[in-house]
């Protein structure tokens, strides 16, 4: 069974790399010290099947 919240960043990456899982994720860029467009670009470059809005 997949946990509701990943315990570590590596767990989050593992969930994002599973093509059979469709999950909604909300990231607030200011908490990471990264601009929202930079974060969206990084996610879409690393995980082409992830949609950012």
DSSP strand content: under 5%
Separate helix tally: 2
Between the first and last Cα atoms, what is the distance in angstroms? 28 Å
Q: What is the radius of gyration computed over CA atoms, rounded to a whole number of angstroms?
A: 11 Å
Number of domains: 1
Q: Count the strands?
A: 0
Percent in helix: 25-40%
Q: Uncertain regions: pLDDT < 50 for 5+ in a row?
A: none
Overview of this structure, please?
It is a single chain. By secondary structure, this protein is an all-alpha fold. It contains 2 helices and no strands. The radius of gyration is 11 Å and the shape is globular.
Kindly list the characteristics that best describe this protein:
2 helices; 53 residues
Overview in brief:
This protein has 53 residues and is mostly helical. Helices cover 36% and strands 0% of the residues.
Question: How would the blueprint of this fold be written?
Answer:
Layout: H1 9-16, H2 36-46
């Amino acid at each position: 069974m997949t946990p509701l919240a990943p315990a570590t960043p590596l767990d989050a990456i593992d969930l994002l790399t599973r093509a059979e899982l469709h999950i909604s994720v909300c990231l607030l860029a200011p908490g990471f010290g990264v601009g929202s467009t930079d974060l969206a670009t990084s996610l879409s470059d690393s995980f082409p099947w992830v949609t950012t809005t």
